[in-house]
């Protein structure tokens, strides 16, 4: 497995990883038509993410195929220059439970350390037990902030000290 900054030619594969993962965890919770519309949007968004939003787009490559991705950058809500946000980690469902997410996570945390970031934040969908478990096992804890999610759910903000 190789973890690296995504290149422009990776962005289509990165978008497909994101779409496959989110369609799996939203299955049965979000209308298929809504997922399809968002998938079309994501395919366009990923072409411009790193340059347009001052973020780092990471990818995990396994056997020449993009199997996972992570996106880091400044927090959506200004929390200070020492805070970084893990906007997302997505692993293609065919690669779940194979260490791809952990490798991406470790790379993001190490990049933050090198940049002087001391606090990380992220948001996780309240109905995504798999993701919540993953982040908890890597030291993330809820900080009390939530925002509305699909239907009657929320997104929960998690926080972690970077040491």
Write down the CATH topology: Aminopeptidase
- Beta-strand fraction estimate: 25-35%
Counting DSSP H or I runs of 4 or more residues, the number of helices is 5
Oligomer: single chain
Mean pLDDT: 90
- Cα(first) to Cα(last) distance is 25 Å
Number of strands: 7
Output the CATH homologous superfamily. Gcn5-related N-acetyltransferase (GNAT)
Biggest sheet features: 7 strands, mixed
Task: Give the strand order of the largest sheet, numbering strands 1, 2, ... along the chain.
Answer: 1-2-3-4-5-7-6
Second-tier CATH architecture: 3-Layer(aba) Sandwich
Outline type: globular
Low-confidence stretches: none
How many domain units?
1
Order of helices and strands: EHHHEEEHEHEE
